[in-house]
Design a protein that fits this description.
The protein has 15 helices and 15 strands. It is of the alpha/beta class and about 375 residues long. The protein binds pyridoxal-5'-phosphate (PLP). It is found in: Cytoplasm.
């Protein structure tokens, strides 16, 4: 039998550049490979495993639900879906929910709804944005290399500098439907705007009668040290998109709306959206985040992580920034080889936007895990500086 790397190459579309490690098992902040080697996970499935791997309460919720009902479609009512919608609105201050299955689908729904609500077409997005890979969300993603093979995409999308509210104002015309922004840009390199920025954008949208979509797919569920990234600025969007950490590792997306921003019957749908299995996992995930006070922990550990990274005074580090446990170290050069060094030393990290080392650990980590990460920087300092 050929090894798994060969079989993957033979049978799976070559869309991903994978790290050469086969992960078999995960628990808390750690995963184990097929040789039984343990790794500290500082990327958490790209901001998905916020409550750690295989949290016992989520595993139990999934098992219980799987024994009773896995899928019905949205032809019928299920209690778990309604319960989850209530909880999501409770923690976010939003008014209604549409369930889907991924972040990109949530963004698709948000773009459709903004057209439906305003009757207008133009969308303003930010430079450095990432919103997903399907046609609508790719259209508002500022990555020409991702877009190029698939043109034409949605017409009438303009990209303006991030953290510049005036640039948004200048771009608005009579046909502008919405502004879509990430409260902190993730894939674009952990870019953190001023709190004032989101408040100013909110005002501009109100004055011009357009919708503000906040994409909280990566920033949601405690990642930045509050339930949602918007909470730092105290801003309520018209539509908020969710995904990633929402269901403790199961695939789910959602869009949440403000009062009065609604689809009509039959205008949008998803066969799997809000199925009882994922909803049970999501309810358990929200309970874990609350009962284990993971949001406070994310804020506290985020501060410590930032402080410790800065203390290293690496010459190769151009900037170190973060909000909660969404932390980036911008390098003077490309960082892929540093990711390899960390993996060899038993710590999984990631590099985004080519030059930004990204740290997105589960929100359950403590100072011990942070020390382990810092220890790798110290042990391999010379190699890191000379890459
Ligand atoms: C802010 C943001 N929006 C949307 C997406 C797309 O989510 P998904 O990969 O679940 O489609 C991502 C994924 O990284 C993201 O970071």
């Amino acid at each position: 039998m050929p090894d798994i790397f060969e079989r993957e190459r033979r049978w799976i579309q070559p869309t991903y550049t994978r790290q050469p490690v086969v992960i078999r098992r995960g628990r808390g902040a750690y995963v184990w490979d097929d040789h039984g080697r343990m790794y500290l996970d500082f990327i958490a499935g790209i901001a998905v495993n916020n409550i750690g791997h295989c949290h016992p309460r989520v595993v139990e919720a999934i098992k219980n639900q799987a024994e009773n009902l896995i899928h019905t479609s949205n032809l019928y009512y299920t209690e778990k879906q309604v319960e989850l919608a209530e909880r999501l609105c409770d923690i976010s201050g939003m008014n209604k929910v549409f369930f889907c299955n991924s972040g990109t689908e949530a963004v698709e729904g948000a773009l459709k709804l903004s057209r439906r609500h305003t009757g207008k077409k133009k969308i303003i997005a930010a430079k450095g944005s990432f919103h997903g890979r399907t046609f609508g969300s790719l259209s508002v993603t500022d990555k020409p290399e991702y877009q190029k093979p698939f043109q034409p995409l949605l017409p009438a999308v303009s990209f303006v500098p991030y953290n510049d509210a005036e640039a948004i104002e200048d771009e608005i015309d009579d046909d502008t439907a919405c502004v879509i922004l990430e409260p902190v840009q993730g894939e674009g390199g952990v870019n953190i705007p001023d709190d004032e920025y989101l408040r100013a954008v909110r005002e501009i949208c109100d004055e011009n009668d357009l919708l503000l979509i906040l994409d909280e797919v990566q920033t949601g569920f405690g990642r930045t040290g509050k339930w949602f990234g918007k909470d730092h600025a105290g801003v309520t969007p018209d539509i908020m998109t969710l995904g990633k950490a929402i269901a403790g590792g199961l695939p789910m997306g959602a869009l949440l709306t403000r009062e009065g921003v609604e689809f009509g019957p039959g205008e949008h749908a998803s066969t799997f959206g809000g199925g009882p299995l994922v909803c049970s996992a999501a309810i358990a995930t929200i309970e874990v985040i609350s009962s284990e006070d993971l949001i406070t922990n994310a804020a506290e550990m985020g501060d410590i992580l930032l402080r410790e990274l800065k203390k290293l005074e690496l010459e190769v580090a151009k900037d170190i920034r973060g909000k909660g446990l969404m932390v980036g170290m911008e390098l003077l050069k490309e960082g892929a080889e540093i990711v390899d060094l960390f993996r060899e030393s038993g710590v999984l990290i990631n590099c985004t936007a080519k030059r930004v080392l990204r740290f997105l650990p589960p929100l359950i980590i403590g100072e011990e895990e942070i020390s382990r990460l810092i220890q790798v920087f110290l042990e391999r300092r010379d190699e890191i500086e000379s890459i």
